[in-house]
What does this fold into?
Amino acid sequence: MDDIGQAIAQLKKELSPDTKLVAVSKFRPVEDVKAAYAAGQRIFAESRPQELFSKVSSLKASGECCDIQWHFIGHLQTNKLKMVLPYVSLVHSVDSMHLLEAVDNYGRENGIVTDVLLECRISGEDTKQGFETSGIPAVLSSPGRYEGVRFRGLMGMASFTDDESAIRRQFAEIRDMFDGIRGGAYGVPRERLGNFTELSLGMSGDYRIALEYGSTMVRIGTLIFGERKY
Ligand SMILES: *Cc1c(COP(=O)(O)O)cnc(C)c1O
It folds into this structure.
C-alpha cells in the first residue's frame, strides 16, 4: 500500500463506524485523489471553487472515481455557487445569512436541495467568517421556507494552538449548542431539525480531541496527503 493508503487505513482504525472521514484534497493533484480512492476513500473535500470544479471535471472526463461524494469546506462567495453546488453533497462552510439565502435561492431556482452545515466562529480569532455560536438558534428559526437547503448540523474550526484546553473549550461550546438545539432547548422548529445530525469538528492536528466531543465528521488533509505546498 502507498503512503496515502496507509494513512487512510490508520485513520479508519481510529474512527468509529459512524464517524465519517473527509479527505481534504485541496492543493493536491487529482492523482492523490485517485490514490485515496483506490484505498477505499469516498468522501473528499475542497476549499476553493475553481479547484473543486477542475478536479470534478477531470475525473468526469476520464470516467474515474464517479461515486466520490464531494464536500465544500472553504469560504464560498455567492457568485461562485454554480461552480460548487451542482457537484457537492454537503457544504460545511455556510458562514453568513447572506450565503445561506443565496444557497437557498440557487437551490429553488435550479431544483436542487443542498445539504448545509452552519459554520460557527469558535476560535475567537479575529475573523469575520462564521456565525456566533449563540446566534445559531436564531438562524435555524428564521422565517423563510428554505426549500433549497437542508440543515444538517454545525461545523467549527478550533484555534491553531498548542493550548489543548482552549481547543477543548471551543469544541465544548459548539457541542453544547448542537446538543441543546437537538434536545429542544432553543425552540427551533422541529421540521428544521429532521436531518440535523452532523457535527463537523477536527482536522489533522486536533481530530482526536474532536472525537471526544462527539464529532461525526473529521476533515483531514495533511495526515493523509502530507504537507501542502501553497
Ligand atoms: C484545510 C482544511 C482542513 C484540513 O486541514 P489539515 O490540517 O491539513 O488536516 C480541514 N478543514 C478546513 C475547513 C480546512 O480548510
Summary: The chain is about 40% helix and 20% strand. The pocket of pyridoxal-5'-phosphate is lined by residues 24, 26, 47, 73-74, 157, 203-205, 219-222 (CB under 6 Å).
